[in-house]
Amino acid sequence: MGIFSLVLISLFTFAKAAVPRATSNNCVGTISSLSDVSAAVQCTTVNIHSFTVPGGRTFSLDLLQGTTVNVLGDIQFGNATWKGPLFLVTGQDITFNGNGQVFDGGGGYYWDGLGAKGSTKPNPMMKIKMSGTFSDVHVVNSPARCFSINNVGPLVISGAVVDDSQGDYPNDKSNGRPAGHNTDGFDVSGNDVVIRKSSVINQDDCLAINRGKNIVFEDNYCHGGHGVSIGSITSDVVVEGVIVQGNEVVNSVTAFRIKTDKTATNSRVSNVTYSGNTARNCSSYGLLIDQSYPAVVGTPGNGVAISDINFNQGSTELSVVQDAQMVAVNCGKNSCTGPWDWSDLKTSGGKIGKFQNTPTLIGYAAPY
Ligand SMILES: *[C@@H]1O[C@H](CO)[C@@H](O)[C@H](O)[C@H]1NC(C)=O
Ligand SMILES: *[C@@H]1O[C@H](CO)[C@@H](O)[C@H](O)[C@H]1NC(C)=O
Ligand SMILES: *[C@@H]1O[C@H](CO)[C@@H](O)[C@H](O)[C@H]1NC(C)=O
Predict the structure, then answer these.
(1) Does residue 71 carry a pLDDT above 80?
(2) Which residue in 136, 146, 243, 325 is deepest, having the highest Cβ count within 10 Å?
């Protein structure tokens, strides 16, 4: 070998060694089965192809910071009697592109009309702990609660679908009741969460905020189910800074609700603004603020302070069925403090409900 070639080889080797280590993650990982996951998550692009996750196993993605995930095929989850979750994603600054691909939880195998109180079910189905953006993921047939959000940093969810419409029908285990039960769309316990342009067809809360600050729920569609809820609120939690706007709530038990446990202490719900929402055909309540949970408009507790609950900055129209109540406010002694600006709340269709320990409601003309 001539000296010239030797120099070339050394130069080449040197150039390779000099490449910064970080770019070793600048690769594309491919997942077509669970056994591909551990290698694929070493790359900052992860492509997921269609496959079936074996029953009893979590499809768990623990991603490098800044990873982009592309879902390129439908994901089925095998049926097994266990607690789940079926899917878990962790990581910071993630771009998760669901591309409208379907995650099928196999609900029909589990549903018995009893939800969490019945047989053991994967609950929740989808655990979201990442920050970043989570887009266009379509879930069908969640065994019980669908998305549980417990994010490590700011998170924007958009274009998500939870379609548990098959759970509206009875099956051979549900004794004539709708088979799906406790199929919450989104359960949020985290700060800085935006959920937008998503839709939920289910048999329980469309959204339930259990704790967190700076949460936006906008331009979503909720069908069936129990509507958009803050709570139930337990002891020692804070919900603060919530915007609920531009949503459409259809055929639900309640459109908007704040429910706090009767026995809860040392908690607070403050600064919640509803605007530009519509709800139609609510079967029990348009708006319900109730401090007696688990009772419904029972004897209220007063250990959760509720303040700054406003319907302003754009009209919210709630229409309920004839026997339903348009609005009920059931607060404990001195635990709801106002005034609240309800000048953009319009209600129609039903009766006016109970008003107990209610602060001054500016602009709401109901005979309470
Ligand atoms: C799980 O059971 C449901 C309901 O019977 C069925 O639709 C689904 O295909 C099953 N999932 C798999 C992966 O076999
Ligand atoms: C109320 O919450 C919104 C949304 O998080 C926030 O922008 C606003 O500053 C809060 N207002 C007060 C008085 O804290
Ligand atoms: C109203 O909602 C109920 C379920 O609460 C549903 O059975 C009924 O079909 C709905 N009516 C219309 C007109 O959509």
Answers:
(1) yes
(2) 146
